[in-house]
Write a structure and sequence with these properties.
By secondary structure, the protein is an alpha/beta fold. It has a single domain (16-193), classed as Rossmann fold (3-Layer(aba) Sandwich). Helices cover 38% and strands 12% of the residues. It is built from 7 helices and 4 strands; from the N terminus they run αβαββααβααα. It has helices at 2-7, 28-38, 108-122, 131-151, 162-167, 169-179, 186-191; strands spanning 16-22, 82-84, 98-105, 155-161. Strands 2-1-3-4 form a 4-stranded parallel β-sheet, sandwiched between helices. It is globular. The chain starts with a helix and ends in an 11-residue tail after the last helix.
């Protein structure tokens, strides 16, 4: 009887997990909102609410930050959804799942300018590390992360350009949709791209 029960138990979830990644301030929140508009539910807890730096929300899930401490059980409920994971945490995603990585890139000087603005608004010091040092650190970090991601057999990655999405959201939305097996509505994805939020132009 035990074996019969095991044979007819509910099958495990199948499908891939969509991961939106990139450096902080690279446009990952915008991309999450695009996916949501296109029909993919975001995995978020709304713990971090919208503010002047991200007026349309951060789309974060706090438990993602706890992966280095072993909190990975939430991943079981992530297939079919989109979750934001910064580049520094990608290596902590557990094996045994299929991941589609939307890796967002942005001009480094714009990332640094946006981060500087965010620090000023929060009253935090902005002179701990120079822009030149930070740019070099980020470049080395991204090189290591990309090399690691490309070696993972359960990872598929699509590199995207933030500036390119703003310039031509329709074409980029179609590209993203195709990467995700054409399950979304690219027209709705493109419709929510707001050039007015492009405030650190370089």
């Amino acid at each position: 009887m035990k074996n019969l029960f095991q044979a007819f138990r509910k099958p495990e979830k199948t499908g891939f997990i969509t991961v939106v990644s990139g450096l902080p301030r690279s446009g990952t929140s915008m991309l999450m909102k695009m996916l949501e508009a296109g029909g993919m539910p975001p995995l978020t807890d709304n713990f971090r609410t919208a503010d002047d730096d991200n007026p349309k929300g951060y789309y974060e899930f706090e438990r993602v930050k706890k992966m280095p401490d072993g909190d990975i059980s939430w991943v079981e409920d992530a297939p079919g959804k989109a979750v934001k994971v910064i580049t520094a945490l990608l290596e902590h995603l557990p094996p045994g799942f299929s991941y589609r990585i939307l890796f967002l890139q942005r001009k480094m000087e714009e990332i640094l300018a946006s981060q500087h603005k965010m620090l000023v608004r929060s009253g935090k010091p902005t002179d701990k590390v120079s822009d030149e040092q930070l740019a070099e650190m980020y470049a080395k970090h991204l090189g290591k992360v990309k090399a690691w991601v490309n070696e993972q057999s359960n990872f598929s990655v699509l590199y995207l350009d933030y500036n390119g999405i703003l310039a031509d959201p329709q074409t980029q939305s179609i590209k993203i949709n195709h990467f995700l097996d054409d399950i979304l509505d690219p027209q709705k994805m493109a419709s929510i791209v707001d050039p007015a939020l492009y405030r650190q132009r370089k």
